[in-house]
Records
---
Amino acid sequence: MDWNGNRTEEEEGEIIDEEEQELLEKLKTVKERVEYILRKYPNARNSDLYLTIIYLRKFTELGKYIKYIPYEVIKKYDGIFESIRRSRQKLQEEGKYPPTDPEVLRRRRRLAEKFRRVMPRL
């Protein structure tokens, strides 16, 4: 641990102890979970990718498939999720590669319509 009592990146790969496991089970909302991660892993404050990976490891079944990745490696790719999402969005706005799930298409159309209604007011 560092001098603030936070885990270092090396320690992050360790097995969760019983006390921490109980705490993790008490955290129900995304906000509570993110706050826990930001408090416990300071480098997550600097990288949404790192924050996301820790969240997935701690709070989803994906955690058993995601092994420890050093922060130094992750920070090279920070911002990549947003770039990927924006590229997909731009291609789909051009009419290319629409969603294959009809529910996803409906949800995105509803959000786009809400956005169009709100924007003239701003």
---
Amino acid sequence: MTAATYSRATYTQARRVRPHGIDRAIMLLSLMALRWARRHAERTAISYEEHTRMHRETQGVYRREHDAALLFARVR
């Protein structure tokens, strides 16, 4: 009667087969790529305040250059 209560589904769920060969290499390569992508994204991410400051500085430079160009372009 014990054999009837032990189903095949529980056996396959409990048993794990570890990857070998090319499967393991592909898994390791994909994991390395994922870790690199996360590090790269964290390195390039900047805060909202830093982005706003950089944008305002850039707009200020453009505005000053435009004003200076207008001064030189005026006919006297």
